[in-house]
């Protein structure tokens, strides 16, 4: 992404950061790792986009358009050019009409937190936009909070138990925020949105086999693992989970 050279008394990097933040909240760029460098009098940032056409003007939301208009008033324009596909990201969903979606991320995930339930490929957020003056700040905030918790529980040093609880328990603040995101996205998409409850440790395989949906207490064991991640699914409550990782088979590398 390239920012044209502005008048000398402006701060192009500041405008570019604001613009990138608006794009992120609209689901048009992923993450916050966008180093900015000077190149031939222009500020240039390299960003990860969900798809090759994600930065097209047709996907711009209200706040993105506002940033563009404000930058133009001080002589700044933005230009975008693709570099190539990312080597360490999952392939984007190519399904014409997904049956459902799942809100899913990890501390390693760079892509959109929305996944297709059919192919499990990442799905950009911006196609779900249906309300004026709205973006996806709530979904992006949830993803950032979830990844922070996942970092803590993977590091196993500070706040491991508290972070794991946020990811695992249905009445945690993190789960409540995520399920609220699912409800809004489901309304926009007209499709079911599932929420994933992480399961780290269990006491025994027998107890894991007896686990029931934490929301309705109904049965939710799947006959086979779905997408290498999910062993449990409640269609009534739109919840997904896994059998405890400490009790999985040795060759199970889904995490």
TrEMBL record:
User: What's a Pfam family in this record?
Assistant: DUF2310
The protein's matches in InterPro entries, at most eight in alphabetical order, are given as:
UCP029037
- Superkingdom of this protein's organism: Bacteria
Q: What is this protein called?
A: DUF2310 family Zn-ribbon-containing protein
